[in-house]
From TrEMBL, chain A:
Keywords assigned by UniProt, alphabetized: ATP-binding, DNA replication, Nucleotide-binding, Nucleus
Subcellular location: Nucleus
Stretches assigned to the AAA+ ATPase domain: 43-177
Organism: Carpediemonas membranifera
Name of the protein: Replication factor C subunit 5
InterPro entries: AAA+_ATPase, ATPase_AAA_core, DNA_pol3_clamp-load_cplx_C, DNA_Rep/Repair_Clamp_Loader, P-loop_NTPase, Rep_factorC_C, RFC_lid
Gene Ontology cellular-component terms listed: DNA replication factor C complex; nucleus
Species lineage: Eukaryota, Metamonada, Carpediemonas-like organisms, Carpediemonas
Family: Belongs to the activator 1 small subunits family.
Record-level GO BP terms: DNA repair; DNA-templated DNA replication
Source domain of life: Eukaryota
GO MF terms held by the record: ATP binding; ATP hydrolysis activity; DNA binding; DNA clamp loader activity
UniProtKB/TrEMBL annotation, chain B:
Family classification: Belongs to the activator 1 small subunits family.
Pfam families named in the record: AAA, Rep_fac_C
Record carries keyword Nucleotide-binding: yes
The name this protein goes by in its record: Replication factor C subunit 2
Any GO MF annotation of the entry: ATP hydrolysis activity
Organism superkingdom: Eukaryota
GO cellular component: DNA replication factor C complex; nucleus
The keyword NAD belongs to this UniProt entry's keyword annotation: no
Length: 332, 324
């Protein structure tokens, strides 16, 4: 896998640099400090973490579990006996709740320091609602033996009965400074040659998703030695701001022939129309034109995006895109 | 939760025990009260949105008909956390229906099937004959959110009682009563925030108040929005007001900011929808805005859950505002 001199096995950097303890978790200081407080006061409630992907939900809970059950004062780690981790790849229908989870939480560990076990249900929003209904009894009945931590993207998909039994923590998208700092840390550790604008590109591509930033970085690093912003955009498959600016310029001035030009640019760079439209949308919002025209444009862009997602022919939709801009220009 | 003393959630603690204490839905509840007095109990389906008192009313009714002692023996309650496949209908429900319990004249055993819309169709099919065969001794009470998920043959065997959302003033009055009993410091804007979030769902209002009180101490609007974690309706209302004046830049700016805070597109949409419904808009424009929000919601639920769709929605709103 590795090009050149390195021969050792590469594990994904996302795993390699996953924080080991709660204090290593880069963001959400208010959440981690609350958790530390709860652990110190031995008042651990059931937990529910939710928020967009790559914001540190799983990292936080795994780090917390390590803090709780990891090897302390020479004693061996209890992690494997005290923590049950289930994610969407495991079968989590109602039978699992009735059998596996119940068996795990109904036996009690006496000797250990935190007197409760931890059940981590990752991607809990993909659990069926019958399984969730069955879970609520289990959660109440075995509170003295175990705590549950549910992780999900959409809080709305967890039934209210369970939500009301948990203390909820919302994980916001990470601020770009935090993503930047952590990315720079990894770059330093891995001895990479990364240009300044490439770092900015990585942060931009990530949109607050730490995992995306590191994955893009690793993928780019495998492809080339010198990491530039162009290389980053190429790897991620997203249009770079320059390309988008060029396309918008073409849309704002060109006639019907712009269709040809846009299609060829997209084919050359291997871009998807939905990504291009997202980029154009960002530019349009910041254009110095009348708000009414922007309103019309955004409405049309939204329609085109929806059409693309319904698997319409891309070439035709590009035509629609050009037409929308020509109409909007007539209003100026 | 760490303490060993078992504390009931307020929702359970303040659940009404008598029909006359049930808040709202006067018509439905008065029908049930008449049944409780006369003792003539048909099979029934209670349908309506969550948190409006369906389960509570059924329990109150059973209590008033049979009394506390008898209702232990003569009432069987099954909800979605119990297994309710066809096997259960064939075994436990049938066994219970066949069981002989000494009851006063003109009284029947009651089987409560809560959340009946989550029963499989096969189980419901198995139920229909059971309902008829044992109708001399046993009555069925089904509570559900969507009556159309109950198969036709069962609907035709039941009297249907519809429950509607509670009004804001009904929710508020109840919140104030409970707050006084639990000595919760309650501010006016806190109550308003709780009722806005609850949207006619008493359970949610109560849970929200309890969570805010436990987490923050004071029940103010800011604390409520923080604990219940919904996009601040003030900002969304401002966004709608801007859109109604055709100010695209201002309106989309607010939405971008809220989206940047990590709220999911669907959550934002439902708040926008409510702001449009209850906001101060001219009637024609309100209709137009509602249509726009509905169309956007359709797209979002079909998979286009991007920020661009929100922006397009604002665009369509501004255009509607311009054309009057």
């Amino acid at each position: 896998m590795a090009t050149g001199t390195e021969k050792k096995i590469q594990i994904p950097w996302v795993e390699k640099y996953r924080p080991a303890t709660l204090s290593d978790v880069v963001s959400h200081k208010s959440i981690t400090s609350t958790l530390t407080q709860l652990i110190a006061n031995q008042q651990m409630p059931h937990l529910m973490f939710y928020g967009p992907p790559g914001t540190g939900k799983t990292s936080t809970v795994v780090a917390m579990a390590r803090d709780l059950y990891g090897s302390k004062n020479g004693a061996p780690s209890n992690y494997s006996t005290m923590v049950l981790e289930l994610n969407a790849s495991d079968d989590r229908g109602i039978d699992t709740v009735r059998e596996q989870i119940r068996t795990f939480v109904s036996s009690r560990a006496i000797v250990h320091d935190p007197p409760y076990k931890l059940v981590i249900l990752d991607e809990a929003d993909s659990m069926t609602s019958t399984a969730q209904f069955a879970l609520r009894r289990v959660m109440e009945k075995y509170t003295s033996n175990a705590r549950f931590c549910l992780i999900c993207n959409y809080a709305g998909k967890i039934i209210p009965a369970i939500q009301s039994r948990c203390t909820k923590f919302r994980f916001k998208p990470l601020p770009s400074t935090v993503v930047r700092d952590r990315t720079l840390h990894v770059i330093e550790q891995e001895n990479l040659n990364v240009s300044e604008d490439a770092v900015a590109a990585l942060v931009r591509v990530a949109e607050g998703d730490m995992r995306k930033s590191l994955n893009t970085l690793q993928a780019t690093a495998m492809a080339t030695r010198d990491i530039t912003s162009t290389a980053v955009y190429e790897t991620s498959g997203l249009p770079s701001p320059e390309v988008v600016a060029e396309l918008v310029g073409c849309l704002m001035t060109g006639g019907v022939d712009a269709v040809q030009q846009i299609t060829s640019t997209m084919t050359m760079q291997g871009l998807a129309l939905s990504d291009v439209i997202q980029g154009i949308h960002e530019v349009v919002l910041n254009l110095a034109i009348d708000g009414t025209v922007k309103a019309v444009l955004c409405k049309d862009l939204a329609t085109i995006e929806d059409n693309v997602l319904h698997a319409c022919d891309e070439q035709l939709q590009v035509g629609g895109l050009v037409a929308a801009f020509i109409q909007a220009r007539a209003m100026l | 939760m760490a303490t060993t003393t078992k504390k009931l959630p307020w929702v359970e603690k303040y659940r009404p025990r008598l029909l006359k204490d049930v808040v709202g839905n006067e018509e439905a509840v008065s029908r049930l009260s008449v049944i409780a007095k006369s003792g003539v109990l048909p099979h029934m389906i209670l349908s309506g949105p969550p948190g409006v008192g369906k389960t509570t009313s059924v329990h109150c009714l059973a209590n008033e008909l049979l009394g506390k002692e008898l209702s232990k023996k003569a009432v069987l309650e099954l909800n979605a956390s119990d297994d309710r496949g066809i096997e259960v209908v064939r075994t436990s429900i049938k066994t219970f229906a066949q069981k002989k319990v000494t009851l006063p004249p003109n009284r029947q055993k009651i089987i409560i099937l809560d959340e009946a819309d989550s029963m499989t169709a096969a189980a419901q099919q198995a139920l229909r004959r059971t309902m008829e065969n044992f109708s001399g001794t046993t009555r069925f009470m089904l509570a559900c959110n969507q009556p159309d998920k109950i198969i036709e043959p069962i609907q035709s065997r039941c009297a249907i009682v519809r429950f509607t959302k509670l009004t804001d003033s009904q929710v508020k009055a109840r919140l104030v009563t409970v707050a006084a009993k639990e000595s919760v410091p309650l501010t006016q804007d806190g109550i308003d925030a709780l009722t806005f979030i609850a949207d006619g769902d008493m359970r949610q209002a109560m849970c929200g108040m309890e969570a805010t009180f436990a987490g923050k101490g004071d029940v103010t609007a800011d604390n409520v929005y923080q604990v219940c974690d919904t996009p601040s309706p003030e900002q969304v209302k401002q966004m709608v007001a801007m859109a109604s004046k055709g100010d695209f830049d201002g309106a989309s700016g607010i939405l971008m900011k809220l989206h940047g805070e990590g709220f999911a597109v669907t959550d934002l949409l439902s708040t926008v929808y409510r702001a449009v419904c209850y906001g101060e808009l001219p009637e024609g424009m309100r209709m137009n805005f509602m249509r726009v929000v509905a169309e956007t919601h359709l797209r979002v639920s079909q998979g286009s859950d991007t920020i661009l769709q929100l922006s397009g929605m604002v665009g369509a709103m501004c255009m509607a505002a311009h054309s009057g």
